[in-house]
Amino acid sequence: MELTTNIAFRSRFNIVRHVVQASTPSFSLASNVYKPLLNNSVAEASNKRDIPPIVFAHANGFHKETWEPLISRLNPRWVPGDLYAFDCRNQGDSAILNKDVLEDTFDWYSYAHDILKIVDTFKLKKPIGIGHSFGASSFVLAELERPGTFSAIIAIDPTMFPKMIYINAPLDDHPMAQLTLKRRDFWKSRMEAKAMFLERRFFRAWHPEALDIYVEHGMLDVVDKDGSQGITLKCPKFQEAVTFACVGTGLYDSFERLNELNIPIHLIFGENSEVNPTELAKMKLAQCKFGSMDIVKDTGHLLNLEKPQETADLISAFLESQFGTPMARL
Question: Where is the AB hydrolase-1 domain (predicted)?
């Protein structure tokens, strides 16, 4: 069993890695800037237009590279400029950078503030925010904190709830946190980890490319307590657990104040999402002043990992509907 690298993706993009100071000075953010290698007339022509840059924010327990299968499937007319993805301060490569300052709690507003820090550091003008799960909610919080920052937000199965159904459970009682803490987090090799993942229906639903990227970039070579070498998750499972449990007010602020945003919000839900059943999805759409919605069939909360092509097609269509086909405006 082998890991496949996305050679086609890396032939289209030059990946420049940065370390950016977080909104809290003691923390750092591991960031990727994807610079398209313009080698066709469509991309070159599109680059002459003022197409907004795009910033990506991942879900809890994931990392910036999990966006690559989706990025590679976006219509090339919409990716002529640089794209930005970063690891939440307590996850992915950021967790490694911050291992000595990680805290026992996590407020979702810190992710929103770090999104704004990315925007400021790279001097981005009116970017488009694309987020998944609590990454999507954090874009909403960021725009609420600084209205007018974004041109539009694309929220993929966003995790945000009205106060009437919001349950704030402590770490010891939070079901998702407790499941996370019980999960295995050490393997002898990436091949062993991938083989174990493929035994589980949860991971078998992923696109093979997404699973390989998760195994390749989401894990760290370590030495176990008994001296044996192996790999573990870059995102410590305790940090993933506290991110589930210690949400602050961000989980419901992002829903209750969604109607304050004066920019287009495009919601994309998985048809079988356990996070966003049909009625809740409709409630979120109703909260948007300038909202629209799409559904990806036969998939759940992780639709961008399970069906990156279908999700990318919907994003490309939304961008064209909002900003016009780049070639048509030349």
Answer: 54-313
What sign does the CA torsion over 69, 76, 81, 265 have?
Answer: negative
pLDDT, residue 248, reads: 82
Specify the 3-state DSSP secondary structure of 18. strand
Residue with the larger pLDDT of the pair 226 and 106: 106
H runs (alpha helix) in the chain: 7-12, 41-46, 68-71, 92-97, 108-121, 134-145, 175-182, 190-197, 201-204, 208-217, 237-245, 250-256, 278-287, 303-306, 308-323
- Is 203 contained in some domain? no
pLDDT at residue 59 above 70?
yes
CATH number of 259's domain: 3.40.50.1820
| CA nearest neighbour of 87 among 249, 217, 232, 220 | 217
pTM: 0.92
In this structure, is residue 258 part of a structural domain?
yes
Most confident option among 195-209, 235-249, 312-326: 195-209
Dist CA 134 CA 112 (whole Å): 10
Judge whether 215 lies within some domain: no
178 located within any domain: no
Beta carbons of 309 and 281 less than 8 angstroms apart: no
Residue 320 three-state SS: helix
**Cβ contacts of 274 within 8 Å, gap of 6 or more:** 300, 301
Token pair 């069939």 in the structure block, residue:
297
Q: Are 193 and 215 in contact (CB under 8 A)?
A: yes
pLDDT tens digits, one per residue of 254-311: 999 999 999 999 999 999 999 999 999 999 999 999 999 999 999 999 999 999 999 9
Domain that holds residue 51: 7-173+246-329
Maximal CA-CA distance, the chain: 63
SS3 content of the chain, % helix, strand, coil (to 5): 45, 20, 40
Give the Cα separation of 25 and 138 in Å (integer).
Answer: 19
